[in-house]
Amino acid sequence: MHRNALPLDAKPILLALREYGAVGVIVGSYGAIAQGVELEMTDIDISPKLSSENIRAIARALASIGAREAEVDADNASGGSLILDTLIRDPEFIHTRDLWMFLTPHGEVDLVMHPAGFPNGYADLVDEEAELGQEGESGILYASLDDIRRSKEEAGRHKDVEALNKFPPPTKSNVKFPPLPDYDESLLLARSHKKSESLILRETTDRNGKTIHRWMRP
Questions:
Q1: Residues 92-120: b if buried by 16+ CB within 10 A, e if exposed
Q2: What are phi and psi of 156, to 5 degrees?
Q3: pLDDT per residue over 82-103, tens digit each?
Q4: Which H or E element spans position 1?
Q5: d(CA 49, CA 190)
Q6: Contact 71, 103 (CB under 8 A)
Q7: Neighbour count for residue 201 (Cβ, 10 Å)
Q8: What span, in angstroms and rounded, lies between the C-alpha atoms of 102 and 5?
Q9: Of 63, 66, 64, 54, whose CA–CA distance to 24 is shortest?
Q10: What is the pLDDT of residues 42-74, one digit of tens each?
Q11: What angle do CA 85, 116, 97 make, to 5 degrees?
């Protein structure tokens, strides 16, 4: 978490990402918090799909809520974000860093290209065939608790080790679902995004034969 970050209010951030059709996977502590793990709410870490169209969508969404890159834009007295403007013009610029930290009036948003444990980032976290970002629907998902646990174990920082003590036992499954800013924890695994009301949770297998669960169309 950046020293200048404001307290996190995730709802307007997630709604902006949805509005602009952004595609990515929420990793880190916020993804675990949304699934019932009691951790400190600090920031949102997102591993984005690295297509030019999607990087532009994310940059426009962040710009719409007044985001500024934590270091470069701190010295920009003209307002706005030089980094977001650059990403909109040249999405390939995203590859010049592994981590981008953006400060917004609603808290910090970090774009993480290669989360610990997932060297290919988004491509490792999401099975393209089941991606909810198809057909124009919002593609912001939570990583499963098992994936978040794996990432924290790989990172191995003191704060990650402390967080892992609050995680439930591994489930040997991989549940992914759209984020719900107004979620009811008792219904968390039974509801889908309002734009995807026809989706149902199905058991399937990934490329390695591992049992997973995904929101899919009937």
A1: eebeeeeebbbbbebbbbbbbbebbbbee
A2: 65, 15
A3: 999 999 999 999 999 999 999 9
A4: none
A5: 26
A6: no
A7: 15
A8: 9
A9: 54
A10: 899 999 999 999 999 999 999 999 999 988 876
A11: 25
